[in-house]
Amino acid sequence: MIQFTDVNKMYKERAALKNINLHINEGVCFGLIGPNGAGKSTLMKILCNILGDYKGNVSVSGKLLESGNSEIKRKIGYVPQDLVLEEKLTGLDNLAFFGRIYGLKGKALKDRIDEVLQKVGLLDRKKDAVSSYSGGMKRRLNIACALLHEPDIIIMDEPTVGVDPQSRNHIFDIINELKNNGKTVMYSSHYMEEVESLCDDIALIDQGEIVESGSIRELLVKYSKPSIFVQGIGVEKDDLNAFGSVIKVKDGYKIDTPEPLQKLEQIADLFLTKDVQIERLEITRPSLEDIFLSLTGSSLRD
Ligand code: ADP
Q1: Within 10 Å of residue 70's Cβ, how many Cβ atoms?
Q2: CATH classification at residue 142
């Protein structure tokens, strides 16, 4: 549904995006994962027509974004990372302002405002000034603004940064509901756990480049090689070298081996004959976060 082809973006001399080729299928929740400064916002702003000065092509449903097609603009709802709200106005008046930009008016506008307020759980606060909302409530209103014109594609740039757990869960519910209603959601984050629970497909981005992309399941199968984790008093690296490639990790040792079950049994047999106190002996697989680290050498958070 969305295709980026050879997209490059410079900010003066700095390359923010380098040769991005990415496909996003219709009706999926797509997670764009990368650390701060990786290029997530830049990629999203290009798709939302906010940044124009780039090289390459972006198409939505087969139509080039560069053609200035207003039909594409109407298809997209953008939730920027920075709040776009007028604090002195009520939630209702903020939404009315955005609704009019999209050509909504009269009863249709009023009804739609109530629908989106209901969706984001702010119906009972609609007559209060935004300045009296909590940070999480402002984020939810920010989302509501992008949903007013019933877009097919919703782009959310780090929508949960700095929000309280209750609003965070509410935002997850909104995303899941959009997905269940057949919408395509593109969502950026540097919280891997969030993306794992919400998204079907992901792209890992680092220093302006797509490092990997695909379905979460595919990536886990591709990279998630099993290892054994051993932790205990008296456990020495020398005892473990015979079972595979041994790495010292926090609190213990990780042994990479293609035969984890057999090796686990052999390690257990060995330690039964030795004077050691085993605390943990188990088969583990790397998480998506570990995979990101191994592909980029950098972690997602500072
Ligand atoms: P992310 O959303 O992943 O945090 P961004 O897309 O905001 O990353 O930024 C990518 C790179 O482009 C960073 O190095 C950032 O400093 C730079 N950048 C972003 N916006 C601008 C701008 N308006 N002017 C100059 N450099 C920018």
Answers
A1: 8
A2: 3.40.50.300
